[in-house]
Amino acid sequence: MGTFKVISLPKLNNLTPTIESTALKLMEEAGELAQAIGKFRGLNGEEVKMEEWEIIDRISTELLDVAQVAVSMMFVLEETYNIDVNEKIRKHIEKLKAKGYIKNGEPSS
């Protein structure tokens, strides 16, 4: 059986996000992730002058930006539209189990 890891990200302060503004920010951050992967992996034809660890570090930084905005969007859904995030997560995990991605609540090895 695989291991179960939880990644928690905080609710950001001093912001008044909407579904629309958060969705646009999510697309922006996803674009930056794609750009980092393309550029730093040499997919755009440019010569890459970074070490592998630097490339992976930049990609992980962009990925966390995407994750943070996605988490922020869940807070917007919860606070503005009274969505039960815990229930949504439970249903999501059930969907993953049904598709065979996880067993007994843990990721497959």
UniProtKB/TrEMBL annotation:
<protein>
    <recommendedName>
        <fullName>NTP pyrophosphohydrolase MazG-like domain-containing protein</fullName>
    </recommendedName>
</protein>
<dbReference type="InterPro" id="IPR044548">
    <property type="entry name" value="AF0060_NTP-PPase_MazG-like"/>
</dbReference>
<dbReference type="Pfam" id="PF03819">
    <property type="entry name" value="MazG"/>
</dbReference>
<feature type="domain" description="NTP pyrophosphohydrolase MazG-like">
    <location>
        <begin position="18"/>
        <end position="97"/>
    </location>
</feature>
<dbReference type="InterPro" id="IPR004518">
    <property type="entry name" value="MazG-like_dom"/>
</dbReference>
